[in-house]
Predict the 3D structure of the following.
Amino acid sequence: MLLDYAPIAILILLATGLAALVVILGHLFGPKRHTDAKAMPYESGVTPYGPGTRRMSVKYYLVAVLFILFDIEIIFFLPWAVVLRDFIDNSLGLFALIEMFVFILILLVGYVYAWKKGALEWE
């Protein structure tokens, strides 16, 4: 049983080893001349002004977290949809269907709560 996972383990080891080798070779043989111009922050060809960090609205982070949260929850629909026919033919049929509707109901409650709190409105 574990022998079936051997190719995946070998691939992970090779990828990790190659990545480490490239980083080490770049560190050993790369240029090491540090100048003030290289240390200066750079963005879009414009000389930076003001502090490097700016205050961001909490709303920005709230929208980002909600997007990630609901996006990850939506990912759970795909495996369920793929094996839906097996669930119906299997003894788990009705139980799995009810569990999925409970999951969808929890998602809807979260959406309604975020909507009522104004988290989904962008100004």
About this structure: The chain has one domain: 2-116. The chain has a mean pLDDT of 81. Residues 2-116 form a domain with the Methane Monooxygenase Hydroxylase; Chain G, domain 1 fold (CATH 1.20.58.1610). Helices lie at 6-29, 36-39, 58-75, 77-82, 84-89, 93-116.
